[in-house]
Design goal:
This protein is mainly alpha-helical and 266 residues long. It contains eight helices and two strands; from the N terminus they run H-H-H-H-H-E-E-H-H-H. The protein has helices at 2-58, 62-84, 96-120, 123-157, 161-183, 192-214, 227-251, 254-265, and strands at residues 185-186, 189-190. A hairpin with a 2-residue loop joins strand 1 (185-186) and strand 2. The longest helix is centred in the first third of the chain and has 57 residues, at 2-58.
């Protein structure tokens, strides 16, 4: 009986050790799989966040640049952990049968990180241009109000066809300047037609307004001697200078806008 008891105790002890080792192995495998699944889920979430913040960054939203940098970094780190393992995070590389897909993800992650850097390298340009576009759009309303005031005063004091046509064109140009500012940059990229029209209309606006004030033989304008009209035209040209300054900030940064758009698309 004593011999049988010893044998049973030995078998029980061996079974207990085997059970403990098996349980530890199962838990380790479960924990490893859970961390791999968590890393995959995190990568998926960050991929979506990366696309969203990249679009917002292109439109000059300040906080989007931090989100873009964070999401691309986390996305890349998780994919690298799945491919090569990450001892610090307790993540081991996935099995060989999944490596083909993970390696494809890794290429995307590296390309995304490279292009995200190209986008937030243009952070100052994109924020500056977005602000300038908003200013130009708002100032176009002020230009319209001043143009209409000038038009009303000139119609009361002059019957010259060239002047009446000129003030009518001024009002039209203010609306087109605002429209070009609205359409200058979209999710599809920089609008070449809006770029051309913005520069052209600003030059034409200045030429007409200055012609109404001091004369322009080519446009058939003789200038005005009316003190009130001259005052309004001077105010109009001062407002125009503020708009032109913002427009120059936009047009002088076209290359940065284009490179950021190309990177964001990738």
């Amino acid at each position: 009986a004593a011999s049988h008891q010893r044998k049973l105790l030995a078998v029980l002890a061996i079974g207990g050790v085997a059970l403990a080792l098996t349980s530890a192995w199962v838990l380790q495998q479960s924990d490893r799989a859970a961390k791999q699944v968590a890393a995959t889920g995190q990568a998926l979430m960050q991929a979506q966040r990366m696309a969203k913040s990249g679009t917002q960054a292109l439109l000059g939203v300040p906080h989007a640049f931090l989100e873009l940098k964070s999401s691309t970094t986390v996305f890349g780190n998780n994919v690298r952990a799945l491919a090569h393992g990450d001892e610090g995070a307790g993540i081991v590389a996935v099995k060989e049968e999944y490596q083909e897909d993970v390696q494809a993800m890794l290429k995307v992650a590296e390309r995304s990180e490279k292009n995200a850097k190209a986008v937030y390298a243009q952070e100052d340009v994109l924020i500056k241009v977005a602000g300038a576009l908003r200013d130009v759009n708002q100032q176009s309303a002020s230009l319209l109000d001043l143009s209409e005031t000038v038009a009303s005063m000139i119609m009361q004091n002059s019957q010259r066809r060239s002047e009446l046509e000129a003030v009518s064109q001024l009002a039209m140009l203010t609306q087109r300047i605002g429209k070009s500012a609205n359409e200058f940059q979209s999710l599809e990229g920089v609008n070449p037609e809006a770029v051309f029209l913005l520069g052209k209309d600003l030059n034409t606006f200045q030429e007409i307004a200055q012609g109404l004030l001091t004369g322009n033989e080519e446009l058939g304008l003789v200038g005005t001697e009316n003190a009130q009209v001259r005052e309004q035209l001077t105010t109009l040209l001062a407002q125009y200078e503020a708009t032109r300054s913002d427009a120059e900030a936009i047009l002088s940064n076209l290359q940065g806008l284009v490179s950021a758009r190309e990177a964001q698309s990738v």
